[in-house]
Amino acid sequence: PSVPRHTNRLINEKSPYLLQHAHNPVDWYPWGQEAFDRAKRENKLIFLSVGYSTCHWCHVMEEESFKNKEIGEIMNKNFVCIKVDREERPDVDKVYMTFVQATSGGGGWPMSVWLTPDLKPFVGGTYFPPEDGVHRVGFRTVLLRIAEQWKENKDALLENSQKILEALRHVSEICVRGQESPPPSKEVMATCFQQLSNSYDEDYGGFSKSPKFPTPVNLNFLFMYWALHRTTPEGARALQMALHTLKMMAHGGIHDHIGQGFHRYSTDQHWHVPHFEKMLYDQGQLAATYSRAFQISGNEFFADVTQDILLYVSRDLSDQAGGFYSAEDADSYPTAASREKREGAFCVWAAEEIRALLPDPVEGATEGTTLGDVFMHHYGVKETGNVSPMKDPHQELKGKNVLIVQCSPELTAARFGLEPGRLGALLQEGRRRLAGARAQRPRPHLDTKMLAAWNGLMISGFAQAGAALAQHEYVSRAAQAAAFLRRHLFDPASGRLLRSCYRGKDNAVEQSAVPIQGFLEDYVFVIQALFDLYEASLEQGWLEWALQLQHMQDKLFWDPKGFAYFSSEAGDPSLLLRLKGDQDGAEPTANSVTVTNLLRAASYSGHMEWVEKAGQILAAFSERLQKIPITLPEMARATAVFHHTLKQVVICGDPQGEDTKEMLRCVHSIFSPNKVLMLADGDSSGFLYRQLPFLASLERKDGKATAYVCSNFACSLPVTSPQELRGMLCP
């Protein structure tokens, strides 16, 4: 490759997103003191651009504006320019996104914000085209206008930015208003169910017309609702809504039928044409949700999808040291000779490519049928392409097909006069050949940054799948990743988590010169992962670490005045606001997940102050939970866990004994969302016995593995058969 003409300070960063901009003619700075000092010293405005490496419109804005020499000159002359990877610094992203959403009514990435030298925002937006168009002002014009305003009306601008900040502070505050008690769980659950039911798409599943996101938080809420109302029509509907959505997603183009895993979202109502990036947080949450669907329904289809997701992550998003990478991009070069990347190029097919790969005649089918015919029919492939021009504004997918399953195996088999039993093997052979052909294409960019929070979500996915599907290798993979976190994203001296680490030279794991400290979400998702991993592996070391991290989380983030946790810690002067997330979206917000974490922590430690904190969080979000719980389905779910009190399921037995294993398999095979599982192995010097004195009084009956179901540390009569235990766990 030619020697780059420009190189800026981002060349010294570790984030793949920042490195993508290291050769722009823009004099980019990373977020930090050097940039802030220069803005103050030269009395210049700051232009802040926030994005992430798999963001399609971020690439577009870079190509059009940040690689443009003239625009670069305007930026360098008038502004101190800062580039932020939102996945590294969700705290910075959240402060300015709150501003952009409040002032423009929308938000997204790339986010473009102009700040005063003391970091207060006064103008913001998202993507700007480079030049003026009919409907939009161009980026060049905006830059020049803002520079002009700063020259002419500096004082008014500064005064205005101060007012904006006060207003933001007021709007974004979440705290207890007088009433100290959590909202009534029954009403919150009923309202949330009603709101989801009203927005449900009866035909295709999901909870909006388009775009459609997987949003596992909605599905997990519905599973909980079903578990509490199994015998009512509403309960049956909740389960049907969740399972139908999961089926339609797995059949859709949002699911990568050739390369496994799920893309980020669908641009249409049918889950057909996705935005093709694949995010770690989706794979982790979906693996857990599909395993729950399998536990509940016993339908192997859901187990297969779970295994498909975990195969993708093990193969394509795994670092050799045990961590998980963040994402794969949507855009790639169609062929090795291509000059420009196209969205979806790695994943889509022309009909003639498939015909050429699958020419074999199919024995026992209608005369003249080829493997290509069967495959193309089953996956909705059309000669002219199956993507509607409406869903392809840039004509990147013209003549191409996104595979989608639109008919049942029985129908496809009948269409070609085949035995239904033979279809599976034919389709599998087709997929295998397409995967081979796809392996020859240039791969999309891989973001090899490793984040504590997202690794936590993925560990939960592997651990829960391992338990529910009785696949020990998944539990081992989860443990390997947890050991990776402990080694690379935890500082034993301070007891604190770090946010991120990176794949460096020779595939070694590297840390940035000044490591980024963990945020609330890093603690919450890692603690949740450690509880899930303990329940799947029964290794007490994970439990001990989880409780240490919970104490640290309380110390760094708890708001003693208004209750709940702040997203970031105090004491960073460059952060104008300490916020609390209030939306369960593509990822759940940290305060929602922490409610269940705190209740689990209390069950494993007897530390009842944690139950009190859980109630205080629900009280702080009470108004939102009662009016619009659909924005917080995970927290709504947690109100039920809080209200119904977690059951402690204690198995007393020898961890290696067959009878113990049988009892554990029974617990793992049942969807019982308000329980914690523990193994009392008789070692009274072990961690759990030291935490929970009541365990010492529980014994094995007739020397057999024995189960007790306890609530608030008072226990049921002992049972020694899996059947009896099942009866106690399934109401």
From TrEMBL:
Pfam families: Thioredox_DsbH. Gene3D superfamilies: 1.50.10.10, Glutaredoxin. GO terms for biological process: carbohydrate metabolic process. Residues 7-168 form the Spermatogenesis-associated protein 20-like TRX domain. This is SPT20 protein. It comes from Aramus guarauna. The gene is Spata20.
